[in-house]
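Box 3.1 — From sequence to structure: Integrase catalytic domain-containing protein
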Amino acid sequence: MPKLLLQECWKLKLSWDTDLPSSMAKKFVKWKEQLKFLNDISIPRCLDKNEGDRNITLHVFCDASEKAYAACIFLRSEGDDSTDCQLIQARARVAPLKSISVSRLELLACNIGARLCQSVKESLGMEEVSTRYWSDSSNALYWIKKNENWATFVFNRVKEIRHLSDPDDWNHISGQLNPADLPSRGCSFQNLAKSNWWLGPPWLKNPPEYWPKSNIFPDEEIVNAEKRKTVVSVTNTEKEDKIYDIFSSYPKLLMVVSWIYRFIDNCRVKKNFRKLGSITVEERNRTEISLIKIAQRESFTGPQDKRLQKLQILEDENGLFRIKTRLSLKSDLKNFKFPIVLPSEHSIVEKLVRWKHCSLGHAGVQIVMTNLREEFWILKYRKTVRKVVKNCVICKRFDARPIETPTAPLPVDRLRAASVFEIIGVDFAGPLYLKGNQKSWIVIYTCAVFRAIHLELTTSLSTESFLQSFRRYVARRGRPSVVYSDNGTNLVGANNLIKRINWETVAKYSTVNKIDWKFIPPSAPWWGGFWERLIGMVKRIIRKVLGQTSQL
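Predicted structure (token representation):
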């Protein structure tokens, strides 16, 4: 009753400080006087859900009226000698202020019943207990059991109900046998105290075969009114063929349209006054103005188009949209002072930009933009020109990058934990021309791990000369364990001399180990990249220092 009175206050738009009407005040006082009868009402708090081997089931009853909708849950405990029922929880809500049908209110009652049952199961640990749901609304039960595409209101409630319960557990019951009728319609405290409503309906204590059974007879008009309307529209997907889409190039489009205009003009005059011969410049200019006007009219709604609001637009005598620039006082061509505005995405504009790009020798974006700006102002200028240049087939073919071979991992000797100059690469650079026109060469020793270099000067490319430089290198930097080089004859000869050494005899009297000399494959200089790169750096520095003396 207090909720209904408060709702009536909202309907009358009463503020908190406004006195209640006398009729509402009498109702509230009458309700307040009946509060004393609550002392006569007592509800047992103990639930017989764990006594022996009794069969426990939950029964959820739902009902609604024009003023409220409610749901109540009863626990049915069946044993060998007796069957007991008791109320677990009940909930009632007033109907919304917005007018709503009774069938929808019945569905709302089923919705709060499913929610309330889920809450009770989680609180009492009865998730596995069998549950049956009861409602006296055939329409609400039809919506729950039929999995169809309902309207938004019914669809959302049915979706939640089907998620919280099994549609097969919902049953129909007559309104006279539904205990949820009491909280949905209300009653006085005196009648509530005299009744045994919280003990459940009497028929619930009977065996299941004696429970009331009734079929569902929904109102088809009400039920079908909640079906989602299917809107069917037929769209013609055939693209309208336009003359500027038929031709791929801008000059050809101009020429064909010019001939069409001439044909139309000749049809309007007598035979003696018809134009003959090739297309004139005036006819070509007229055609170009017409095509530009088509592009503007199909893309812009007018000078007040939102894309043109930030530009000072004027319309010339031919009906073309132009931009008013600060060069209006310059004695120059009209197109330069007042360039023509063009949309960024239109077939005619695309053909115009492509023609400029090709006529300028497939020039880049900046050159094409500069040339076009002498006559036109295209929205999203750079993006439009870049798109055309990027899609040019000829430019794609010449600007295509060759397939690059993926780089291989570094050799193991480049990654070993070795000391400086323990693993080296050797090569010659030169010749250098000394005084007296004498030639000399530089032997470069490169550390494979730390990239350090050691330079030795030799007077020839012979094996003896290289071995002398190698001895000086060993005396200065220490003996290497691994040496990499190309297949030069002097280096091969040095390797052969080193192989002749009896390293086992040397090892008996010292800690010297054998030198492992490795040659890269013939005609594969990239195998020696780690020293070839440093040779290039040394050559460049020597050229700067020695000038004409070096012939590196």
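Summary of the box: The chain has four domains: 1-40, 41-226, 250-399, 416-546.
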